[in-house]
Amino acid sequence: MLTLPVVNMTGKVSLILFSGNVDRLMAGSIITSGAVANDMDVNVFVTFWALLHLKKTGAPAPTLSPEAGAMAERMMKIMSEKKMPSWLDTIKQAAEVGNVTVYACAMFADMMGIRKSDLDPIVRDVIGVSQFVDMSRDSNMTLFI
Amino acid sequence: MAEKPTKVIDARGSYCPGPLMELIKAYKQGKVGDVISVYSTDEGTKKDAPEWIRKSGNELVGIFDRQGYYEIVMKKTR
Q1: Do A33 and B20 count as a contact with CB atoms less than 8 A apart?
Q2: ipTM of this model?
Q3: From B10, B16, B30, B60, the catalytic residue
Q4: Of B20, B26, B77, B22, which is closest to residue B48 (Cα–Cα)?
Q5: φ and ψ at B29, to 5 degrees?
Q6: Domains of chain A listed by start with CATH number
Q7: A2 CB-contact burial (10 Å; exposed 0-12 / middle 13-18 / buried 19+)
Q8: DSSP readout, B30-67?
Q9: Under 8 Å between Cβ of A145 and A24
Q10: Which chain B residue shows the shortest CA-CA distance from A29?
């Protein structure tokens, strides 16, 4: 029998979630899952409009990127009819399977008066950009979404 | 099928990467020798899951077409 080599699956991915549009947030959560499936650790830095969606109360209503245009309404309907898991549930599922650490951006949190206790418990800590960039230094990829 | 599953995951209707993530979760919770079966309707998973099973050094028992879905069976060998 042919035995294929076992691929060494390690490494690290850093994601910056900036957009609060749900299609982008979903892309980030799905990439997180893909990284975990490859045994990679994931650091997620959540800032600006994305961070508002981690608020326990008062999170904005879900929107799609402007390019969805006329398709937006139909797309939202499809996502709800097909019971697509939310981006946050997808991140949480990935965190159950692998090493996923979510950080909130200190600058935006300060600006908007958001405290760690206002945010979903998936948020490990509120950190500054320098600390995050230091984490991304030795990542195999860093994506701004 | 020679291998009788010790765990069955019914992920039909769940989209990529849902079924694969459930498979990996079951794999991590299981023990060597477990036979894990996943039911899925998602086409991405049909490619991704066997690839993950191979890369992770486990055994792909088979991919079986069922009525309206397919079944992927893996054996945890490490």
Answers
A1: yes
A2: 0.83
A3: B16
A4: B20
A5: -85, -15
A6: 12-144 (3.40.1260.10)
A7: exposed
A8: S-TT-EEEEEE--HHHHHHHHHHHHHTT-EEEEEEEET
A9: yes
A10: B17
User: A1 pLDDT exceeds 70?
Assistant: no
Residues A66-110: pLDDT tens digits? 999 999 999 999 999 988 999 999 999 999 999 999 999 999 999
Longest pairwise C-alpha distance within chain A: 62
Which residues 74-133 in chain A show a CB within 8 A of chain B? 82-85, 90, 93-94, 96-98
Kindly write down the DSSP assignment for every residue of A34-57, as one continuous string. Answer: HHHHTT-EEEEEE-HHHHHTTBSS
Annotation says B31 is catalytic = no
- pLDDT 10s digits, A24-83: 999 999 999 999 999 999 999 999 999 999 999 999 999 999 999 999 999 999 999 988
Searching chain A, which residue's CA lies closest to the CA of residue B16? A30
CA distance A87 to chain B (A): 12
How large is the average pLDDT for residues B3-28? Answer: 93
Domains and their CATH numbers in chain B: 7-75 (3.30.110.40)
What is the C-alpha to C-alpha distance for residues A71 and A61, in angstroms, rounded to an integer? 17
A125: helix, strand or coil: strand
CA A22 → CA A27, A36, A51, A52, A72, distances in Å?
8, 21, 12, 12, 11
Helix (H) and strand (E) counts for chain B?
2, 4
- Cβ–Cβ below 8 Å for B55 and A7: yes
B29 lies within 8 A of chain A by CB:
no
